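Now for a sample.
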Amino acid sequence: MWKGLKPGSHLPFGAAYPYKLDMVETEEFGNMLFLDGMVMTSQKDEFVYHEMVAHPVLNTHPNPENVLVVGGGDGGVIREIMKHEKVKKATLVDIDGKVIEYSKKYLPEIAGELDNPRVEVKVDDGFMHIVKSKNLYDVIMVDSTEPVGPAAPLFERGFYQGIYEALKEDGMFVAQTDNPWFKADLIRKVNKDIKEIFPVAKAYYANIPTYPSGMWIFQIGSKKYDPEAVDVNSIPERETKYYTPRLHHASFILPKFVEDLVK
């Protein structure tokens, strides 16, 4: 139940794509960030998404020193990355500075690590940043909105090919790829594209109540390392609320209808 709006305004987003940013205070989920009426994050359940973007891939790559986050202006993925002492630098590239600004103000527990000295924040086009980066990153995380407007190119094969080239020879990437109930064709297409580019391609899922259907799919592309081959005993316990070493492997066990999408 809405208790009222905090600032909401039409802001520029990409080339000729106006959108509406709302920060809404709710009784059940706390402050919620919306873009064009779509839930991006909420104080109550944000930890699920952000932990599941960051930890599976960072616990698979043995030395993720240089990490890139495309999107993710709320800072949640960066917060989780900072829990990994092997990460020497994390670069966040988000096209929208207002998301960063509003998150710092209204979602401080999510955005609190954006000022960490190991973090560089750039307000820029993530797609073009990938194009200009070659053999640079150990891990790339794509924390994008849904595939509409300026985020649409982040779900195309050319973008994944660019990620491959931006990664080092043993690099990995992860991207959120929406939900299997309403976006089955998207998941099938993205999985096919990733498999054609990367030697290792794996999908996993998590439960996020404020996202459509509650079931959310993530996909990994890796040049060398298999997330399902990780020794659970090698994963250190960290301060998390959803992800655990045991859940690492369990999240790759997909329901049959999702498994069929990514075969």
In short: Residues 83 and 238 are 7 Å apart (CA to CA). DSSP finds nine helices and eleven strands in the chain.
